[in-house]
Structures are given as structure tokens and as C-alpha cells.
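Work Package 4 report. The design task specified in the project plan requires that, given a folded chain encoded as C-alpha cells, an amino acid be chosen for each position. We show below one input record used in the internal validation round.
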């Protein structure tokens, strides 16, 4: 490592602050430092805090920071704020919020301006989170800008996404239902001492959300230890990642063989609104469907088209609550995932876990009966990766 990276690893706060500024401004030297530190990333738990304006996200982050420090954990706080039209900088910043932590070396606080980026994050937020992770922080808390229902990009970055709601939202719940509510790993009803907390919790249960719903009063610290306990395991029994772990799976202990051959591309998964229309296009290219299947658990229709040594997997949602349907609503038709064949899937899973990668499920049987596991885009550079046990087909 160069001297700058070494000082960051040694806990030099000024070196870290300088690198953070450089990364945000896309300075080549700072980005080189980020690359130098890449092998040290994967330790921190990255937590996204999002929700509508007025939900008390900043106060909640402040309370979480205080509780983490009481437990001896170090953390970084990345607060993404609206951009000033005059200067392009953040309208709000760490000079205003969270003043009680200013002199604590165990907390690094950074405000970022969106600089016109939509989705609740700034362009460099992911890189800044990686920097804080590689610097040795135990937790990275990312507070999104608080613009409303389109604020969903945090789910691709965070290990755990906390959606903060407050009593008295009324029709606002319906307004944001199709947006940030779908990305939650944990719901928090903040300001739970206000009238209406029972009502909003009933509404959330009535919507059928199968994730933990917790109550907090961030100004007093009530419910914060319980929220942190939910964040630390990464999911509750109802979250998507934990539901997937109930699939039929096999375990084979053992390290990934160093001499094992590298993965090969098994297929590219492409989300399409209408399967037959997509099939017709690929048939004009000379491809043909070799296999069709309906995956009831995922509520998706699948068509496989061989392309030499790999395949194209077309994915059509069966219903509005299919994961593919939600993908289409958020991203539109296009590449959904890249599937790689590995010679020893259980060993690959253990290797990924030891490196801190976020896995979305235990090995399960998918289309065609193959054994697979998904790796979250936050761990792969932004693309959902499916790992498949090599079968020699």
C-alpha cells in the first residue's frame, strides 16, 4: 500500500477525510487509494436508513450511533442531502446534525450532496461506503436524502435497509406503497409515542409485509437497542433473504480448492414483460427454446435458449407480486442477473461468507433442477450474481 492508504488503515482521521473528499470529487489519486484498500473491505455492516421527509431519520441515525458507541463499535455516517442550487454542495451537513459525536474518533460523519442524482443517493455514495468499510469501521450508516417513494437505490448498496415511518402519515402510506416499502428489510415506526402508531402498524400488517416492524422514539432512545439487535443479524425471520434460507439445501463443509478451475458463464437472466414476444425476437436470430418452466415459488415463467456454451434465460412475471414484476417496475426490461457455474458450490458459498459477501439465500433448486445461490449486488459491483453448481450439461 502507498503511504496514504497505510495511514487510513492505521486510523488517521485526516487521511480518511481527505480520501473521502477525493473520492466524492472523483480525484484519480483518491480513487487509486480506494483500489489499494479494496482487499480490506467486507468487514462493515452497511445499513441504509430511508423513508419519507419528516420521519426522523437523522435523529434515528444519531441514536443508533450513540448505542453503537456504547457497545464499543466504530462507525461511519454518510448523510446524503439535497444539493444547494447556489453552490452545488449539501444544504444540510454534519456541522448542523449530530454535534454530540463531533469529537468522537470512533465516529466519522460525512455529508454528501446529491448533485442532481435521483434515487436518494449521490453518485459516489457506494465508493464512499467502501472506503469507510476498508478503513476498518464496524458499521456504515447511510441516511438517504428523504425525497419519497423513488428512493430505492439504497437497497442495492446496503446489507440491511431500514424504512422509517411515522404515525399520522395517513394517505402517504398508499402514496409510497409501490416504492420504498418494497425494499425494506426492517420497518421502523419512529415517534411511536405519538397518536396513530397502532394504526400505522395495523396498516403495514394488512399490506402483508413479512419483515420485522419495530417501534422507536429516537429522541429518548426507546426501542433503539431492539432495532440494533435486528440490524446486527441482518434480517428477521420474514425478510426475503431469510425466507430463501428455508429452501431445500445441501451442505458440504470444506475450503474452496485453490487449484479449482474458474467459474464459467451459465446463462444471462433477462427480465421481460411478455415471454412470447421476447422469444419471437431471439428466434429471428436463429435461437430456439430448449426448455420452458414455471417456478411457482418465484411466480415466474422461464424460457431457456442455448447460445453455444451458455444460455439466455428469459423471465416473465406471473403476477404483480413476483420479484421479476417488481424488477420491471423499478428498472424496466433488461439484464436481471448473470449466472456463473462453479465446480463446488458449497465451497464457493463458504468462501464468499468468509469474505463478507452478502448472500441472499442458502443453496436452493431452481429452473431445471440446478442448485443455486444469489449474491447481492452490493457485494458484486452492482449486478445480481447467481452461482450454480456445475453439472456438466
Amino acid at each position: 500500500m502507498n503511504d496514504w492508504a497505510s495511514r487510513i488503515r492505521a486510523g488517521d482521521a485526516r487521511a480518511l477525510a481527505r480520501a473521502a473528499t477525493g473520492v466524492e470529487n472523483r480525484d484519480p489519486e483518491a480513487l487509486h487509494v480506494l483500489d489499494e484498500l479494496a482487499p480490506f473491505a467486507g468487514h462493515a455492516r452497511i445499513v441504509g436508513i430511508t423513508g419519507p421527509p419528516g420521519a426522523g431519520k437523522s435523529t434515528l441515525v444519531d441514536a443508533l450511533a450513540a448505542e453503537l458507541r456504547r457497545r464499543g463499535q466504530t462507525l461511519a455516517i454518510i448523510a446524503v442531502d439535497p444539493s444547494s442550487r447556489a453552490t452545488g454542495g449539501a444544504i444540510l451537513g454534519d456541522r448542523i446534525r449530530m454535534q454530540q459525536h463531533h469529537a468522537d474518533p470512533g465516529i466519522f460523519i460525512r455529508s454528501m450532496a446529491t448533485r442532481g442524482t435521483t434515487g436518494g443517493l449521490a453518485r459516489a455514495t457506494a465508493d464512499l461506503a467502501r472506503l469507510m468499510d476498508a478503513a476498518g469501521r464496524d458499521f456504515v450508516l447511510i441516511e438517504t436524502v428523504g425525497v419519497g417513494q423513488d428512493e430505492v437505490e439504497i437497497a442495492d448498496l446496503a446489507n440491511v435497509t431500514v424504512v422509517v415511518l411515522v404515525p399520522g402519515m395517513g394517505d402517504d402510506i398508499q402514496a409510497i406503497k409501490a416504492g420504498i416499502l418494497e425494499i425494506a428489510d426492517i420497518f421502523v415506526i419512529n415517534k411511536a409515542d405519538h397518536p396513530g402508531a397502532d394504526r400505522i402498524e395495523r396498516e403495514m400488517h394488512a399490506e402483508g409485509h413479512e419483515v420485522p416492524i419495530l417501534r422507536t422514539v429516537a429522541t429518548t432512545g426507546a426501542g433503539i437497542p431492539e432495532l440494533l439487535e435486528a440490524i446486527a443479524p441482518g434480517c428477521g425471520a420474514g425478510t426475503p433473504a431469510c425466507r430463501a434460507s428455508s429452501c431445500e439445501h445441501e451442505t458440504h463443509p470444506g475450503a474452496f480448492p485453490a487449484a479449482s478451475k474458474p467459474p464459467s458463464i451459465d446463462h444471462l437472466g433477462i427480465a421481460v414483460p411478455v415471454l412470447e414476444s421476447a422469444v419471437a425476437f431471439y428466434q429471428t436470430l436463429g435461437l430456439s427454446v430448449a426448455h420452458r418452466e414455471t417456478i411457482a415459488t418465484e411466480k415466474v415463467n422461464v424460457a431457456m435458449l442455448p447460445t453455444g456454451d451458455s444460455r439466455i434465460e428469459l423471465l416473465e412475471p406471473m403476477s404483480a407480486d413476483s420479484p421479476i414484476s417488481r424488477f420491471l417496475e423499478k428498472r424496466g426490461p433488461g439484464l436481471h442477473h448473470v449466472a456463473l457455474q462453479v465446480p463446488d458450490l458449497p465451497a464457493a458459498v463458504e468462501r464468499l461468507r468468509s469474505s463478507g459477501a452478502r448472500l441472499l439465500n442458502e443453496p436452493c433448486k431452481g429452473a431445471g433442477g440446478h442448485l443455486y445461490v444469489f449474491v447481492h449486488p452490493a457485494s458484486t459491483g452492482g449486478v445480481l450474481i447467481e452461482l450454480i453448481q456445475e453439472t456438466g450439461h
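Residues 264-389 form a domain with the 2,3-Dihydroxybiphenyl 1,2-Dioxygenase; domain 1 fold (CATH 3.10.180.10). Validation will be extended to a larger panel in the next phase.
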